[in-house]
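Extended Data, panel c. Modelled sequence:
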Amino acid sequence: MLGAASGIAQATARLYAAEGAVIGLAGRNSERLGSIANDLTARGASRVEIFEMDLVTADPVPALASMIAKLGGADHVVLAYGVLGDQALAEKDLAAAQSILDVNFRSAAGWSLAVANVLESQGRGSLVVLGSVAGDRGRRSNYVYGAAKAGLAVLVQGIDHRFRGRGPRAVIVKPGPTDTAMTAGMAKGGPLWATPEAVAAVVRKAADSGGPVVYAPARWRLIMAIIRAIPAAIFNKMNF
């Protein structure tokens, strides 16, 4: 679990724990990861290993090799970290914009490519990456974040295409608004909001089957198809 302290990652890890899986937790806060590890062990995980690192600055190739060696292999890799950032600040401060892009695309792309090489060499396994519906169309409220997620989605789809006929698979999961720490400052409620548990169920299923692009919950596929189809002249007048 890359970005194991995120709400969706924790909910997903609990599903794996219930299956008795060996789980690796990668993130920056070892104390927080230790608490999560204890919870997963209590829920049935056969073994939980902690890997303290800053995923944005770490070199994915040696870090991944070290983690896999300690775990004894890798069947599924879930990349679940990201940052929403401040769109208004990013429009005025290039460093703030670059930070959003570094976390959500540059570093995530590096980890995805490193994982792809490992899975391809072993001829099996799944890479599941958390994207966002924000990447389906640029909106004034979060287009820097959305651009990073759009690029990541294309990368993961390309990795899955590369994998075809070779055994492994890659999936980009696109959640809609989800009640996690990332969205703590937003007004929540209503039918469009999902729980981390609901998204986790989609992530876990996507690791085993389905296409390279999965929406979470599934209704977002239709919602985003409609949003993408809105003519620009109308879309540009919408305040969201």
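Strands lie at 22-27, 47-52, 76-79, 126-130, 169-175, 213-216. This feature is highlighted in the accompanying rendering.
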